[in-house]
């Protein structure tokens, strides 16, 4: 049973609980082993989330950064946990010219850092969930230090921004 169901007696999980329920946190031993060979702050493989708390803390993350990281990593599986919202957000992003330009510009930057996948694979696997997470969790006071450069002023477009706002409101209904 999901956490919120226990607290509220509501037999239906919130969207946030549904998303969080789609992944499990790796054990400390699994994370320690993973972190030896992966330079990431967090990663999801299948339904397992790995969070490098030490690296995040050393980078300046504060507050409930672990909770925010876990939610951000859980967004990797949004296509499985809520295909409805994944498709709504993806469709809005695909229709929004400003977002598509940002996608292309970001991909050019990623290629300079060694990205080799085709643009759509990179977007689907690595970037789209970051953009959604950046909108929801980013800002100058973000708990996760890497999210502090994300702001609502980034090119989220109009159509996509409207869907992100709907999604944000739906998370805890």
Could you describe the 3D structure shown?
By secondary structure, the chain is mainly alpha-helical. The protein has one domain (3-170). The chain is 60% helix and 6% strand. It is built from ten helices and three strands, in the order ααβαββααααααα. The chain has helices spanning 3-8, 15-20, 28-37, 53-59, 65-74, 78-81, 83-95, 97-112, 119-137, 159-170; strands at residues 24-25, 42-45, 48-51. It has a three-stranded mixed β-sheet with strand order 1-3-2, sandwiched between helices. A hairpin with a 2-residue loop joins strand 2 and strand 3. Helix 7 (83-95) packs antiparallel against helix 10 (159-170). The longest helix is centred in the last third of the chain and has 19 residues, at 119-137. It is globular and about 45 Å long. The two termini are 18 Å apart. Residues 1-6 have low confidence and may be disordered.
């Amino acid at each position: 049973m999901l956490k919120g169901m226990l607290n509220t007696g509501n037999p239906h999980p919130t969207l946030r609980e549904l998303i969080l329920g789609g992944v499990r946190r790796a054990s400390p031993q699994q994370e320690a082993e993973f972190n030896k060979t992966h330079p990431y702050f967090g990663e999801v493989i299948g339904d397992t989330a790995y969070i490098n708390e030490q690296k995040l803390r050393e980078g300046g993350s504060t507050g409930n950064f672990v909770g925010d990281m876990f939610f951000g990593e859980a967004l990797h599986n949004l296509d499985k946990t809520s295909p409805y919202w994944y498709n709504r957000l993806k469709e809005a992003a695909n229709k929004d010219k400003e977002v598509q330009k940002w996608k292309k510009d970001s991909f050019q930057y990623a290629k300079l850092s060694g990205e080799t996948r085709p643009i759509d694979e990179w977007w689907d696997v690595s970037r789209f969930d970051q953009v959604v997470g950046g909108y929801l969790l980013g800002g100058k006071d973000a708990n996760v230090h890497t999210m502090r450069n994300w702001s609502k002023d980034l090119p989220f477009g109009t159509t996509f921004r409207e869907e992100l706002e709907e999604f944000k409101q739906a998370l805890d209904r």
